[in-house]
Specification:
With about 110 residues, this protein is of the alpha+beta class. Helix content is about 40%, strand content about 20%. It has a 4-stranded mixed beta sheet with strand order 2-1-3-4, with helices on both faces.
Length: about 110
């Protein structure tokens, strides 16, 4: 980073994104097959994960929202990403977080 320039996003956000991406990578074996199966069943959409709770002995609850549901319930950025991703090689993951925040990721799993 150039001295005197402000970062585009705060350092805590950078660290959170890195942590989110590492967590997504650790769970690709669950998310990628689910995203592919649901795309074939319901069309374009997103895996939505509630990271605010974790039942004992199980992972975080998640579901798949088809594009029509995304358009009704998520913000404009999530809607845009779902419209633009390539479902044959990518998936969209939305993480619900504490204090009502969400993070949206367009992921291309390595094969």
């Amino acid at each position: 980073m150039t001295q005197g320039r402000r970062p585009l996003i705060p350092e805590w956000a950078v660290q959170e994104r890195l942590s989110d991406l590492a967590w997504i990578q650790e769970n690709l074996d669950v998310f990628w097959p689910a995203a592919q199966a649901q795309y074939r069943r319901a069309g374009r959409g997103a895996i939505v994960v509630d990271t605010t709770i974790r039942p004992t002995g199980a992972g975080n609850p998640f579901t798949y929202l088809a594009q029509a549901e995304v358009d009704k319930t998520l913000d404009h950025e999530a809607q845009r990403i779902v419209r633009e991703y390539d479902p044959d090689t990518e998936m969209v993951i939305v993480l619900f977080k504490q204090k009502g925040r969400i993070s949206v990721y367009r992921c291309r799993p390595m094969k």
